[in-house]
Amino acid sequence: MAKMAFQHQAGTAMECLSIPITLQKEAGVDAEGREVMKCGFKIGGGIDQDFRKSPQGYTDNGIYVTEVHEGSPAAKAGLRMHDKILQCNGYDFTMVTHKKAVSYIKKHPVLNLLVARKGVTST
């Protein structure tokens, strides 16, 4: 019998780990001079998008982080590109449209995110 490289506990996710991230937005000014709360990341995906067409090669309709700006609140909070957002302030992000996710993220000054990151469990 082949030896397993690691012990896997039943009922735990093998490929990704859920990571809680608290992101405090920073006040900034947009191109039109309006005050905005900046979080410093962009998202892709959503149940209304065709993930097969995603340039990042995502495998489901989840909401994914496609960009994190250097030195931004998102970067400081530890958010990384390709993180999958599972929840935002307790709201389920696994079955939302792209627009709904964007408006939800824009609405809150503090984001309590739960993200899944591939390959974090492998050491």
UniProtKB/TrEMBL annotation:
Entry-linked InterPro entries: PDZ, PDZ_sf, Synaptic_Scaffolding_LAP-MAGUK, Tax1-binding_p3
Gene Ontology biological process terms, A to Z: cell-cell adhesion; establishment or maintenance of epithelial cell apical/basal polarity; neurotransmitter receptor transport postsynaptic membrane to endosome; neurotransmitter receptor transport, endosome to postsynaptic membrane; receptor clustering
Family annotation (SUPFAM superfamilies): PDZ domain-like
Pfam assignment, any one: PDZ
Single GO MF annotation: protein kinase binding
SMART domains, per database record: PDZ
GO cellular component: adherens junction; basolateral plasma membrane; postsynaptic density; postsynaptic membrane
Superkingdom of source: Eukaryota
Domain PDZ: 20-107
Family matches, as PANTHER family: DISCS LARGE, PDZ DOMAIN-CONTAINING PROTEIN
Protein name: PDZ domain-containing protein
Species annotation: Euphydryas editha
